[in-house]
Amino acid sequence: MTMAHDDNGRIGPAASAAGCDADAVRWLRDGMARGRFPRRDALRMLAVLGAAGATGVAGKAAGAPTPVDTTLRIACHVMEMDDPSAVTSFEPSNIFRNCLEYLVRIDGDGILRPHLAESWAPSDDLRRWDISLRRDVFWSNGDRFEARDVAATIGHWLAPESVSVNKTLFADVRGVEIVHPFLVRIHLARPMLSLPDMLFAVTCPMLHRAFPGSGRPWTDAPVGTGPYRLDHFRVGEEARLIRRAGYWGATPPTRTLRFIDLGQTVSTQLTALSDGQVDILYRMDASDVPLASRLPGVRIVDCLSAQTCCFRMRTDTPPFDDWRVRRAVQLSADNAQMLRLGYADAGSVAANCHVAPFQPDYGPVAPVRRDVAQARHLLADAGHPDGIDLVLGVGNTQGPWEQNTAQVLQQNASDAGIRIRLDVLPPNEYLTIWSDIPFGLTFWSQRPLGMITLDLAYRSGSAWNETRLRNPDFDAALDAAMRSVDPVACRAAMGRAEAILQDSAAIVQPFWQKKFTAVSTRVRGYRLDPADCLDFTSAYLA
């Protein structure tokens, strides 16, 4: 294994030879033992590299609740999911993930674990990944899960006609090779250490090899490897899933899952929960907690999360193609006040860099201090001495807290002569234009790593790059982070990328949100996931 100095003079595995060979694994284990980096960082990196024993392998769970003939009812928006790889919201993924599964999984602890994949190993230059598959997995139609299913799924993501964000996320895939029925080899154009984490993106469930090119919605022929099968599906009404026989993993305790669409008014959902019509709410926000806490038979569940909202500006569209205008908007914002008044102070203040301090790859950056006088100066210098009029699109896609937060920004900006008019649209209408409007508020869920979010949202040419930011230095810093085995060097590269994003003034990202939901006091075994990947495989009614 080649050794190299990072930007801070530390010695670690060179990016060009950063594979999972014995030297790299020994170096990581030694660094953990000597305290060069935290145990959690080393375990995460060892898991990414596929080091044996770093994490457990999925299988039959010991001590799981005895299967019973019960039903869990979840209040959730039931949306179209014709192609699971092309969804743009988490709601449909939390329905189909009970039927379809992923090569890997990442639980609430943030540690990567095998799932349909049994193990994986990168080449020394991180441009080739060998993924070994479990041999005991069968599709619900009786076919064996094999490497050709993985190859067909990835080929579907990257097909010319694909509308999946995976087409951008995996744009560096140059080939998928079936080595044998249970070993697939992925060839990449550049080193990519984050590949295993990326395979847990919501749009990355494995699909049966017959699905691509079938021309049929997945809901018409819902073949999957998961513990449930789709029994009934109607957009805007209900999705019903039934526990199936022959599942390779632990049998879930609950026989039937019913996802019931009650609309997006949380107070209506809470009333249904209190009245015993549903058992679990998909989500609620901080403003709903007071009502939920007063209802009998209701328990509030919460967790820390890197979910957030961004007021993003299109850097290719006037007046936001002028950095001075964008910077003036950013300097006028009071992020702490937006958290306090927009989201009931339930979270932590963010630094306009879209990577949370508690994510494993975060590189520290200084916050942007509010400076109204400088904002006015920049506007005048940009030719707006009397201020400027802007229109901000808001869709309340996750609830009224979005509009509440936008109103605080509106008040903040007025101090600097920035007059913002809110254009509030119905959620479904807003979701059709969210990436196209010049100035809008977008909700972002947590990804396993900050680098995955930055790659999706801000890399030049990315399908979800709603800011249209194009910065080669940002892309280079992100590349450095994505190929670094050394957790310290990775965070240093991420810090550079975060600082470039912050300095671009493409976004005002005010806070990190605490996640909330409410469940019946009869519910057992259900945990809220910070990344919004809901897991019902251990949940049941007492």
TrEMBL record:
Chain ranges of the Solute-binding protein family domain: 113-443
Biological process according to GO: peptide transport
Species this chain originates from: Gluconacetobacter azotocaptans
Keywords: Signal, Transport
Protein name: ABC transporter substrate-binding protein
Pfam families documented for this protein: SBP_bac_5
SUPFAM superfamilies: Periplasmic binding protein-like II
Subcellular localization: Periplasm
Main localisation: periplasm
GO MF terms held by the record: peptide transmembrane transporter activity
GO CC terms of this entry: ATP-binding cassette (ABC) transporter complex; outer membrane-bounded periplasmic space
